[in-house]
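Worked example 2:
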Amino acid sequence: MRTPDLDRERSEKKRPLADFLKLYNENLPLAFPRASLELLKEFKSGHAALFPNGSVWSLDQHRRKVMDWLRSHESAGQ
C-alpha cells in the first residue's frame, strides 16, 4: 500500500485567498518578491480565466504564475 503524497495533496488543495497568501510566502527564497492581498487581488483581476470557480486558489495551479507575474510586475514598476 502506498503512503499518501502529502506535498502533492498540499499543493493541489483548493484554498481561500488568505490561506494561499500565507503558503505562497512561506519558505520563499529571499530573491523572490513577496505577495500581498492587494497584489493577489490585482493578479486575479488580470487573470480571470485562471479562476473558473470564483475565488479558489491552489499552489499547484497558481503559485508559479503568481511568481512570474510578481517578478514582471515588480520590474515594470521600477
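The helical segments are 6-12, 17-25, 37-46, 59-76. Residues 48 and 63 are 15 Å apart (CA to CA).
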